[in-house]
Design goal:
By secondary structure, this protein is mostly helical. Helix content is 72%, strand content 0%. α1 crosses α3 and α3 runs antiparallel to α4. The longest helix is centred in the middle third of the chain and has 23 residues. The chain is flat. The N and C termini lie far apart (35 Å). It comes from Brassica oleracea var. oleracea. It is a multi-pass membrane protein.
Length: 105
């Protein structure tokens, strides 16, 4: 329900506005706008529950998730012309986990 709402409220309008100005590879990264809004809403919910100042860690998590999702879509769409998208390997999973946890190290 929430992803459908964000898709209709954020993703589709932004895509419609920028569709004529961007090529198909750049349009994949419009989903990041939806993840930014989702992160901001989660920060707001955490603020209401804890009454502590937002640290923007949750928003950063959602932004990273959006960037990696868009990058994965771009790689798979490019590879789909020649072959199907391969499953994620263990080494690339470890690399992504390391990147996401860099601020915590």
């Amino acid at each position: 329900m929430v992803p459908a709402t964000l898709r209709r409220a954020i993703y589709y309008p932004v895509r419609k506005i920028t569709k004529s100005k961007m090529n198909s590879d750049q349009v994949l990264f419009l989903g990041v706008a939806t993840f930014i809004v989702s992160g901001a809403v989660h920060e707001l919910i955490f603020f209401y529950f804890t009454r502590e100042r937002p640290t923007r860690e949750v928003t950063l998590f959602f932004v990273l998730h959006g960037v990696f999702t868009a990058a994965g879509g771009a790689v798979c769409s490019r590879d789909s012309l020649t072959k199907s998208c391969r499953p994620v390997t263990l080494s690339s999973t470890r690399f992504i986990v390391l990147l996401v946890n860099l601020p915590n190290l």
